[in-house]
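Researcher: Next entry in the queue.
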Amino acid sequence: MHIEHTALIVDDYDKAIEFYVDVLGFELVEDSPSTTNDGRPKRWVVVRPPGAQTGLLLARADGERQSAAVGEQYAGRVGLFLRVENFDASYQHMVSHNVEFLTEPRTETFGQFAVFLDVAGNKWDLLGPV
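Model: Structure for this entry, 130 residues:
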């Protein structure tokens, strides 16, 4: 058993794909036409880190309630955690691609980390080894 996907509400599919694939290095697993429950067009877009089983389903906001949730899915808390093998290289790559970091890198008992914002404004921890 495993979690297949978790949905992440975004403003724009293509900007989100660019961020996750070009900046974070995720794989674009699927980008297929689909429809909403009431028959309007949408896309089924899934990205995930290379080799991972769990992906992010990038869901374009539909309506006021979902638009209000963009960047606030975790009520201002860090809600997503990206573990990398080479923290320094990943951090420098992200900085060079203008990713906004809210904290400076530091080391804790669980390893290196820094908090960054994704393209929608959600807080993530970038995590590295101890």
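Model: The domain at 73-130 is CATH 3.10.180.10 (2,3-Dihydroxybiphenyl 1,2-Dioxygenase; domain 1).
Researcher: Noted, moving on.
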